[in-house]
């Protein structure tokens, strides 16, 4: 049986009717076509699915969509303002913070949270905060450089 759920995603109001078992990740990707958020492991191990809920980062694969009633969700699609990329997006480009790019939306959503929450004091602190976001290409050094630059 479907459940009515209202939430705001990237500034837009959605009134949805959802099966209770649908994850926030599957809602975004499969029902709303917001495919910038990636599915890597689908069980909380890789960080590719990272989004913000009321400003806090979460793994959207571990979160049910019906739990988001009244919440504000931000995905990678919601960071840029028109053609103007978010400073973290600009820094990832400048510092080659990706190779294949699959983990990048999740990395960037975590990086924004890292800076906003004040966990970018040192390279070690950034690495610790970002440790839930796995990059198979090994772009970690460049990701840290990108975050350090935005901090300055
Ligand atoms: Fe959610 Fe990997 S897809 S943590």
From TrEMBL:
GO MF annotation list: 2 iron, 2 sulfur cluster binding; metal ion binding; oxidoreductase activity, acting on the aldehyde or oxo group of donors
Top-level division of the source organism's lineage: Bacteria
Protein keywords: 2Fe-2S, Iron, Iron-sulfur, Metal-binding, Oxidoreductase
Residue stretches making up the 2Fe-2S ferredoxin-type domain: 3-79
The protein's name: Xanthine dehydrogenase YagT iron-sulfur-binding subunit
Native source species: Chitinophaga niastensis
Residues of the full protein shown: 56 to 207 of 212
């Amino acid at each position: 049986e479907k459940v009515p759920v209202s939430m705001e995603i990237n500034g837009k109001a959605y009134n949805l009717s959802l099966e209770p078992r649908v994850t926030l990740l599957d809602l975004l990707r499969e029902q709303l076509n917001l495919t910038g958020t990636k599915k890597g492991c689908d069980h909380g191990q890789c960080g590719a699915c990272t989004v913000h809920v009321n400003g806090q980062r979460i793994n959207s694969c571990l979160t049910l969509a019906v739990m988001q009633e009244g919440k504000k969700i931000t995905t990678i699609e919601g960071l840029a303002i028109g053609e103007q990329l978010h400073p973290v997006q600009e820094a990832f480009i400048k510092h080659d913070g990706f190779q294949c790019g699959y983990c990048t939306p999740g990395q960037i959503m975590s990086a924004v949270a890292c800076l906003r929450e004040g966990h970018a004091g040192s390279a070690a602190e950034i690495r610790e905060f970002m440790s839930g976001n796995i990059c198979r290409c090994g772009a970690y050094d460049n990701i840290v450089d990108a975050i350090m630059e935005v901090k300055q």
